[in-house]
Design the sequence.
């Protein structure tokens, strides 16, 4: 699998996670989202940016419950809950949001 | 409450056996397996230390690993006892937990 | 929950020479989902896993030392470090990274997760565990 962006081919693993994390750009995020059948909006960007910041600081993509707990703390309970997260990313924040954010699959996510 | 410790490295290559003995409590057992069985030998630079620890801790070696390495049970340090696989299982069931020293 | 067991992950290897240290951390992160009472022990060369200032850029390996600081998010609140192992290696607590957790019972106050303890205390920690996983 791979993504096409501005005439360039971006390599991924068999599940669509990009192989080289430094290939990521906001434009690529839009491409990956489209592939997932999603349109990027402010709410999705909020989560994607949070994931990228978390990875930058801790070198891991957080588990879903850790993500939700952290969002609850920084953005309040109306955003830090499962329902909101699955509305934004129907196939799961780990699977879709991490993929769009250009991160590896979260540890322990099968 | 007691612990069965297993050690699978030669004490001449790593700290595993010495570290294990330093953390074992009276009544614990230490079973030396694989290359760990070299720790059970008599007449080595470590024998005195191991015999001393053996006063508080039961010391065992896994006989099949000893035989594989061509070591006769007569070469074991005083207080070190050989056990077979069935003895290994008995030790596991006799203690409350097993801790591996890798 | 009635069936909470005390899990102790014992780390005795330096971080990059073998895969043990990274594997241990990954198992801790995965295992944290099971809501058990989890503690980590660092002794012998394992104390090298927690040193400050690691930079793996030029060896082509991932620097996973920042990940220890995420453990609080995973409800891992106890990282025991053996004082004798530090001293034998010319290290002190000041050479270690800072890891904190938020104490639910104390208005979510941030508290240090790293606890430097003696070898005898480490023996006690091990003897109190229900399950020991060695790396």
Sequence:
């Amino acid at each position: 699998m791979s993504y096409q962006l501005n005439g360039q081919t971006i390599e991924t693993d068999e599940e669509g996670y990009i192989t080289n994390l430094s290939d990521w750009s906001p434009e690529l995020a839009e491409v990956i989202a489209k592939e997932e059948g999603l349109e990027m909006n402010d709410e999705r960007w909020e989560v994607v940016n949070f994931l990228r910041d978390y990875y930058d600081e801790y070198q891991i993509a957080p588990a879903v419950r850790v993500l939700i707990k952290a969002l609850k703390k920084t953005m309040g309970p109306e955003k830090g809950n499962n329902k909101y997260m699955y509305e934004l990313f129907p196939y799961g924040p780990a699977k879709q949001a991490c993929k769009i954010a250009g991160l590896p699959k979260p540890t322990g996510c099968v | 409450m007691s612990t069965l410790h297993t050690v699978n490295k030669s004490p001449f290559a790593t700290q595993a056996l010495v570290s294990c003995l330093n953390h074992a409590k009276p009544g614990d057992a230490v079973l030396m397996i694989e290359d760990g069985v070299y720790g059970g030998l008599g007449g080595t630079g470590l024998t005195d230390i191991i015999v001393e620890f053996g006063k508080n801790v039961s010391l065992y070696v896994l006989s099949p690993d000893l035989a594989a390495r061509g070591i006769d049970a007569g070469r074991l340090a005083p207080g070190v006892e050989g056990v077979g696989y069935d003895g290994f299982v008995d030790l596991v069931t006799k203690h409350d937990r097993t801790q591996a020293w890798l | 929950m009635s069936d909470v067991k005390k899990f102790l992950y014992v780390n005795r290897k330096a971080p990059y020479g073998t895969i043990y240290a990274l594997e241990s951390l990954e198992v801790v992160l995965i295992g944290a989902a099971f809501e058990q009472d989890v503690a980590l022990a660092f002794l012998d060369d394992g104390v090298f896993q927690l040193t400050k200032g690691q930079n793996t850029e030029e060896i082509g390996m991932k620097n996973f030392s920042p990940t220890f600081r995420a453990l609080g998010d995973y409800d891992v609140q106890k990282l025991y470090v053996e004082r004798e192992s530090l001293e034998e290696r010319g290290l002190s607590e000041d050479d270690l990274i800072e890891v904190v957790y938020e104490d639910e019972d104390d208005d979510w106050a941030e508290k240090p997760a790293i606890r430097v303890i003696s070898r005898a205390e480490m023996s006690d920690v091990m003897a109190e565990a229900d399950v020991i996983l060695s790396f």
